[in-house]
Specification:
Length: about 450
């Protein structure tokens, strides 16, 4: 966008924000995978679809020079690519939630640690690959190389277990719950007791299924399986989400995290322009510098679990936002060149500023993961608040609200850069933009009353 299309910083910021919009509608993918199975499988088919959506845009961009030189087509293909990535992210979250449900809450921390560690290792290797590619490969080859990564993801779907029996057992459990509800509504305690005894007896006999109606049996014979009505499943999922969402213990923290992202104008793309055009730092260096950021995420996770998880959540969030404000001060010092008299190089300012920002953001990320009740892992809580079968949807809703706030913050950053007339050759007002970002970072501290005062950062 900068070198080939010659787009302004504000335009690039806007298009990048638009490209990441699919991450703001994650509940849609969650409801689809939870409620509309494909051939009795809820996860693997959607992993395959998401992998293809991630694969094709990179391959098309690598093979078509016309498309990769058009800003509109490039943005459209990046939206598709992010759609695939976001969908895969939701499916994996749901699978982790299912694993927590079957393994027990005591293993939740281990599963989440494994997920984050894997993500960090992948991020490290991805950053190294990106830095090397930018220095040694032409752009069309880089796109083709990128397409090999979702291809590997697609192949790995062959090794993911997604048994139809698990889906059938979820249907049976749903039917059993519906049957109990029907009896209770009739007000017949005796009938309810007999039905419960009959179900327990049937469970002891090799988990036999309840007798189905003649119409259901006919449908089962014709279709080879029993499929619940998608409209009823979607209605049930939507009702469960609304019921959980309206609880003050969930709504108020969600509102705060959304507000804390919206108020911060994101001008990261503008800063990339400044670092490459004004400071003449190589793009490959900025890509490789992300390695330090990933190590900082690991360090931030360790520090949080070691020293902060027993602190009050409000104190943790104050620490995070004050820390992010300090990072904004470092960026202002970089733009105003205040570090030069002290003999500090630009690379060190950029490198360590980015590393500290990633580490502090990890604190806020961890508090987003555990913002409710007694700070139990959100994947476990979503399993408690939602009925079996839609484990990933509530978690996806919460993360989507955060992502939507971040996206709106990025659009705000693009508007701010445009209003300040920041261009490729004009960065005089960049310090003002960073000052506005500093103020926006501190604003959410005044709304921490939305977070219950007694809540701590305890993760289990």
């Amino acid at each position: 966008m900068k070198d080939m299309m010659k787009l302004s910083p504000s335009t690039s910021q806007f298009l990048v924000s638009l490209a990441y919009f699919p991450w703001s509608i994650k509940p849609i993918y969650g409801i689809l995978s939870d409620c509309i199975p494909i051939k009795q499988r809820k996860r693997v088919p959607y992993l395959i679809i998401s992998s293809c959506l991630s694969l094709l845009p990179w391959l098309i961009l690598g093979l078509s020079q016309t498309l990769r030189t058009s800003a509109n087509m490039l943005t459209s293909l990046l939206i598709v690519q992010n759609l695939g990535s976001a969908m895969a992210d939701v499916v994996i979250d749901a699978m982790v939630a299912e694993a927590v449900r079957s393994a027990g809450p005591e293993f939740a921390g281990d599963l989440q640690s494994l997920s984050w560690s894997s993500m960090a290792v992948g991020g490290i290797f991805g950053s190294l690959l990106g830095g090397y590619a930018l220095s040694n490969l032409p752009i069309h080859v880089i796109y083709v190389v990128f397409s090999a990564l979702p291809l590997f993801q697609l192949v790995s779907c062959m090794f993911v277990e997604d048994s139809p029996k698990r889906f059938q057992s979820a249907i049976d459990e749903h039917n059993n719950q519906s049957s109990v509800t029907a009896f209770s509504e009739e007000g017949s305690g005796e009938a309810l007791g007999k039905e419960g005894a009959r179900r327990r007896k049937g469970t002891r006999k090799n988990n036999k299924r309840r007798p189905l109606s003649k119409q259901t049996e006919a449908n089962e014979k014709s279709n080879g399986s029993f499929n619940p009505s998608p409209s009823l499943s979607l209605k049930s999922a939507f009702f469960s989400l609304c019921t959980a969402f309206k609880q003050p213990a969930i709504l108020r923290p969600m509102a705060w995290f959304f507000f804390s992202n919206v108020t911060i104008p994101n001008i990261s793309t503008v800063m990339f322009y400044y670092q490459t055009e004004e400071l003449h730092l190589e793009a490959s260096f900025l890509g490789t510098a992300r390695v330090i950021g990933w190590f900082s995420l690991i360090l931030g996770t360790y520090t949080y679990n070691r020293y902060f998880k027993h602190k009050k959540l409000r104190d943790i969030l104050v620490f995070a936002h004050v820390g992010l404000a300090i990072i904004s001060l470092l960026d202002i010092a970089l733009v105003l060149r205040l570090h030069i008299p002290h003999g500090i190089g630009d690379k060190y300012m950029v490198l360590w500023g980015s590393a500290l920002a990633d580490a502090i953001n990890q604190f806020k990320f961890l508090t987003r993961m555990f913002p409710f009740g007694r700070m139990m892992p959100f994947l476990i809580l979503s399993g408690q608040l939602c009925p079996p079968g839609i484990e990933g949807t509530l978690f996806a809703l919460f993360m989507s609200i955060n992502n939507l706030g971040s996206t709106l913050g990025s659009f705000l950053g693009a508007a701010l850069a445009s209003a300040l007339n920041i261009s490729t050759a004009q960065f005089d007002n960049l310090a003002l933009g960073l000052g506005a970002q500093l103020i926006g970072t501190l604003l959410p501290i005044g709304f921490l009353f939305l977070i219950p005062n007694e809540v701590t950062g305890l993760t289990s």
